[in-house]
Amino acid sequence: MIFVALLRGINVGGKNKINMKLLKQTFENAGLDNVVTYINTGNIIFSCKGKSKTELANLLEEMIHNDFQLHIKTIVLSLGDFKEIVSAIPASWKNDMNMKSDVLFLWDEIDNESVLEKLVIKPAIDSVKYVPGAILWSADKENITKSGKSKIIGSDIYKNITVRNVNTVRKIYELMQD
């Protein structure tokens, strides 16, 4: 089965630095196959048989701690899970000079549509949608400083998400299908 591991908060602002070649080796040492990393922010595609997503996330968090002495939260999603999220992203959403569109991947503790009630959403600025496993969030760049998305930082929700822009999410999905 094909999976992706999304690591939270590595190689961001000079913190939690992990070399991708070494991280790939960690995944291979964990018994995972066909390991491919994508960009430096902790996106690792791999195949594995006989382990659940929770078992894989726990194993990878332990292996990363052992190899890098870092406590890095990890979400593991199957190809099917990822397809559902990618399919829910409106085709017009992109991350470019005019638009900022992100996928906020949710840990199980907050993965419920009611999470939207805890967010500051500005309907005239923000387009926000819940899909199991993620919140999809987009705003025009000219209004990005007025967006409610910045209010997530420092909240309880923030500790239980990892964010990727839609361009990255679409590329990960493409790599998972190869």
From TrEMBL:
InterPro entries: DUF1697. PANTHER family: BLL4334 PROTEIN (PTHR36439), DUF1697 DOMAIN-CONTAINING PROTEIN (PTHR36439:SF1). This is DUF1697 domain-containing protein. The lineage of its organism: Bacteria, Bacillati, Bacillota, Bacilli, Bacillales. It comes from the Bacteria.
